[in-house]
Amino acid sequence: MLTRAITGLFFIIVLIGALLLGEVVFTIFFSLVGIGALYEFYGIVKSEDNKPNVILGMLSALVLAVLIGIHCIGIIPFKFVWLFIPFFAAIFIVSLYQKSKLPFNDIAYTILGIIYACMPFLFFVALGFISGTFNHYIPLGFLIILWANDTGAYLSGRSFGKHKLFERISPNKTWEGFIGGVLFAMLIALNLEQYFGSLAKWEWVTMAAIIGIFGTLGDLVESMLKRSLGVKDSGNILPGHGGLLDRFDGLLIAAPLVFLFLLMLQ
Fold first, then answer.
1. Cα atoms in the Cβ-side hemisphere of radius 13 Å centred on 3
2. How far is Cα 142 from Cα 185, in angstroms, rounded to an integer?
3. Do 83 and 73 meet the contact criterion of CB atoms below 8 Å apart?
4. At 220, phi and psi to the nearest 5?
């Protein structure tokens, strides 16, 4: 528990520091977290039958992250982001020259890793620039709401949890915990407009509802992934907490949807 607490505190300090140190540090840090999560994904899915192209997959994700990052900062227009397409095409072409028993399994896992493990962090980076210029309050608010949802779900589940939410995937999650987490996240979001501005109160609350609902579903999806592969943790980079996918499972589905919601308001 001590190791877990120390790691958790250090983890939060690093995340908040990356948000407050400016657009360049923010963009580089969370892009690298996405690359690290992708590496974890390839590590846990790799088997005798599934052999994702780790090098080409990581290179493709890195190119995409760099292009999106320098676009967000304002160095290149969005049309140049599409330069990542040849790297995706290469994933298919290179498989022609590899002697693999199930080449499309390899292709599928290579691309799935980029979409599932890396791209959500790039959407999170884009949240910092959703208003046209860098605004750290929106991604910071996202993380605060995500943590509030986790805290509310844990406390509500321990206190009132009786009805299993998805026992086949996560035996400890309950409907009471799920509802408590969403309500607590929305309660915290009510106060963010006062301190952070940036969004209207109803936008913060709607954002909290999206994070609470789809953050929990993202957690369940990541648990489903690990159960299907027979692994306990996605990695061991965070002592007492597992891997990056374990710590950011709530972000993986919620971040793209929050970005879409805020984009529609522009």
1. 7
2. 10
3. no
4. -65, -40
